[in-house]
Amino acid sequence: MAAAEGSIVYRGGQRGDDALFNLDPRTGESAFLAPIPPSGGGAQSVYSPERTLLIWARGGARFPFDANLFAYDPPPETEWQLTSIEGVAAYRPSLSGDILAWESRPTTPSPVTDVYVARLAEAAPQAAPSPAIAKGARSSPRAAGTISSADTSPGVP
Amino acid sequence: MTWQDRNSYGLDIMRLRRTTGHEKRGYFQVSQSDCDDRDPSISGHVVVWQRACPRITGPSYRSISGYDLEQGVEFLVYDGEGQNAFPKVETNYVVWLAQYGDVRGGRGAVGIPTAQNLETGENWQLGAAREAISIGLSGGVAWWRRAGPTPMYDLETKGYRLHLVKAPRSSGRRRREHCLPRGTTRR
Fold first, then answer.
1. Domains plus CATH for chain B?
2. In this prediction, does ipTM exceed 0.85?
């Protein structure tokens, strides 16, 4: 469970019918946010109320060593990969406005982890949702919307 | 540490770059140390995380660090006694679990819910007991998981709110007031 400012995102529902909900801590009221997308995920979710986007970490059997951050837009059920830094896994997102912070570590087992930030402002995909994602297949990384070490320097001189 | 470029946030490195039809994104490594920097939380222009530095013997020493994205400077939030873990930041407040670790009885790791006002530097404990399994902060309200009802604490008024509890199904006689910690009264 992780919280966006002013709200708490949590995963609930019955087995096989999971969904993400938003809890207002001041009123104690919960509201439906989105279903878990067909591709799975939902762990470490944060919610952007401004963009109505959900962001979470997803990996495989080596989680978190093989994890990356994904964003999901409930309508129209578009999902895309946010992080793709070579040799570095990304997980534990935290979001404030359009700035995303997360924890990263090398994809090989290592005790050294670091904290990264990036602006989400232009992260929304421009294209239509991938048919493969809509059918429930695992999403493939997209060039657009990907934070890549090959694209820019990390900003540390 | 310097930034590659500057704007009002000093975050130009993170701006979208558009080349040959492809959108490219940058990122910034906030924490710079040989230690283990984990569990980040961001609010506005402040990022906080727990820093675990190895010791020759015993478990890593865990403190709470932060970074001001506007000023471009790292700062220490808290490095008091024991392990400090799982910080959350919102506006002027940081909460975390102090003296985090295993307790006797093998019930798992717990800590004391603690807060700091970043403007004044004041630290205080939200609960007296070392009982919190995890902690959250949202809307000026901190809550922590423990064995039993989840306390909710208003950081502005420094008072408890009603707990998050599931309504009992078997009997309606149990009132919500029963879930308040001993010694506290409903405001």
1. 1-30 (no CATH), 34-179 (2.130.10.10)
2. no
